[in-house]
Design brief:
By secondary structure, the protein is mostly helical. The protein contains eight helices and no strands. The termini are far apart.
């Protein structure tokens, strides 16, 4: 039962934690930009961090000020979903997930081969299914006709 997650106190604590983590990530981003300058933003992870923190700042600090009242936009929901991508920042930093990332990269590299293998297996299964239906159908037809009428059984054979 997830009803305890919707309690106002829990929601307020989670919201406060969201602000704390966003402040930490914003500070981290500023430090990286100051130390590494444009090289940080040009790296793929740096650009990814910039985008994620920008979405977070926009969603947590800018939109609540702009959207005062009862206005609801689908854009807000989109930014909230994009916040979930921030989880990948923490996961990629964990050394325990190094093997998993290596496996994901390997699977991504072998994806074309896997797709062709699945296509080949599906084709083989489909062909054998057709053969099996034809054989089973003829055998069952013979047994039904043989049991009912001897003259018709000779014609089927």
């Amino acid at each position: 039962d997830d009803s305890h997650l919707y309690h106002p106190t829990v929601a307020s604590v989670l919201q406060d934690m969201e602000h704390v983590f966003l402040a930490f990530f914003t500070f981290e981003l500023i430090v990286h930009v100051v130390l590494f300058r444009i090289a940080f933003v040009k790296s793929s992870w740096g650009a990814f961090d910039c985008i994620i923190v920008t979405f977070g700042v926009f969603d947590q600090w800018i939109l609540p000020v702009v959207l005062t009242g009862n206005s609801q936009f689908n854009v807000v929901l989109t930014f909230r979903v994009l916040r979930l991508v921030r989880i990948t920042r923490a996961v990629r930093l964990m050394s325990q997930f190094r093997v998993m990332w290596m496996l994901v990269r390997s699977l991504r590299g072998a994806l074309v081969t896997l797709i062709w293998a699945v296509l080949l297996l599906c084709t083989i299964i489909y062909v054998f299914a057709i053969v099996a239906v034809e054989v089973v159908y003829k055998l069952s037809l013979k047994s039904i006709l043989a049991a009912s009428d001897f003259d018709t059984a000779e014609i089927v054979e």
